[in-house]
Amino acid sequence: MDMHELTPKQIVKELDKYIISQDKAKKAVAIALRNRWRRQNVSEELRDEILPNNIILIGPTGVGKTEISRRLANLVNAPFIKIEASKFTEVGYVGRDVESIIRELVSLSINQVREELTMEVEDEARERAEEKVLDLLLPPPKRQRKTNLSMDEQKEERKRFEEEKEKHQRTRDKLRKMLQKGALDERDVEMKLDDIPEPRIEVFSSMGLDSFDINVGEILSGFMPGHLSSGKRKKMKVSEALEYLFYSESKKLVDMNDVKEIAISRVEENGIVFLDEIDKIAGEKSQHGPDVSREGVQRDLLPIIEGTNVPTKYGMVDTTHILFIASGAFHVSKPSDLIPELQGRFPIRVELKSLTEEDFAKILTLPKNALIKQYTEMLKTEDVDVSFTKGAIREISSFAAQANNKMEDIGARRLHTVLSILLEDYLYELPDSKMTNIKITKELVTKKLDKIITDEDLTKYIL
Fold first, then answer.
1. Burial (Cβ within 10 Å: 0-12, 13-18, ≥19) of residue 377
2. At how many degrees (to 10) do helices 65-75 and 23-40 cross?
């Protein structure tokens, strides 16, 4: 969708298709996203002065914090990465290098842009791949150079060669139609492997100061006798050759310099970083002073949130205008336990409410990806129609709410557990049964779940 059309109200409307409740959070992220478009359309001298409205979403797990951010990114096709802030403290103060967040975001953006540009050249790449396979199946005729021919003999030779070319072209056209229909997929062809790209992996140094590629092919070729080294010939099926050549031709048609330029620009202008569990690095000060490890991570995060240049294998990335959305339950700590400098970089704070029984009923049915819709479509693959009565939906919601009240509140995630227990027998038995219709009623839900929810020990271990 064009960003010009995405007004805050329209953004909230789009988020409503997937997320129930949490109107304050939706409104906050909608304004932050629209402000990006506004910034990009102000005069150049002011543009660099306008900073993103970074947000802290406060609320228990399973209420929609991550989903709001993810759907927001999908809405505008923005590079998005979810990072758990607590991961940076697992191995002590050094932990994981915070700049790796930006490097991973750039890598995701590179893949995203490469895929888009590959789709743009898909038709041409497939056409080129087909022509190369046809050359393998039916090599073009070669004109033999004969010397000491008379004028008439030369004329006759040219005529013969033209006839041969026409015959070759007719046969090639027939083969092309067969190739496009898949009739030649099982034929064998022998091809040179120059065009087959070697798999590559990216390695980051422990301190994250630089990164480099390792060509797996170069390493393995030394001790794997069957390794597909460049320049060797290999026999393969036509279908395999088409895929290899399509990949190769796509790679030739897509300019990696364009990919890098577009990808980095997208990260700088539209990137979204979701910092989950930020409350885990907001340690309360004790008599012995602040938690060095946690405060150290906060200070490491500060430069990339404030705006700095991060070196990546694709070039320098300016983080000044990347939108950071942090989230946390803040059961033990509170946002004011973050260092003041970091608090100042998150001017917007929104508290998300715990989900109610009524919310659960809506979550089960209203979103585009609602759980009941998912199970309905899955069971259709077994030629079974499943339906849920309104009473059943209310009862499922009630059991989920009770389980959250009795134990840890895990929000909408409890619905996954409740539904999987409710439908477990059907999911197991259906492939071997002759059932074609299932009706889930309130009575059936009660019979299946009542014992579990009333028995505290069962509730603890099953739900």
1. exposed
2. 30
Q: Cα-flanking dihedrals φ and ψ of residue 440, to 5°?
A: -90, 115
What is the β-pairing status of strands 211-215 and 80-84?
Answer: unpaired
Domain ranges of the chain: 8-115+262-351, 126-142+154-253, 357-462
Where on the phi/psi map is residue 418: left (φ > 0), alpha (ψ -120 to 50), or beta?
alpha
CATH class of the domain comprising 357-462: mainly alpha
> What kind of architecture, by CATH, is found in domain 8-115+262-351?
3-Layer(aba) Sandwich (3.40)
pLDDT (tens digit per residue) in 219-243: 444 444 444 455 678 889 999 999 9
Q: Quick check: helix, strand or coil at residue 308?
A: coil
- Distance, in Å, from the CA atom of 399 to the CA atom of 421, rounded to the nearest integer, reads 12
Q: Per the structure block, which two tokens stand in for 278?
A: 């930020």
Phi, psi values for residue 91, rounded to 5°: -115, 40
- Cα-based angle 258, 263, 266 (whole degrees, multiple of 5): 125
What single letter denotes the amino acid at residue 299? R
**What DSSP state is assigned to residue 55?**
E
Fold match between domain 8-115+262-351 and domain 357-462: no
What pLDDT, on a 0 to 100 scale, did the predictor assign at position 58?
96
Residues in the chain predicted with pLDDT less than 70, given as ranges, are 1-2, 89-96, 143-147, 149, 152-153, 194-231, 284-292, 455-463
* Integer Cα distance of 104 and 257 in angstroms: 19
CA distance 60 to 411: 7
The predicted structure's pLDDT at residue 440: 96
pLDDT at 20: 95
How high is the pLDDT of residue 97? 81
Q: Are 404 and 357 in contact (CB under 8 A)?
A: no
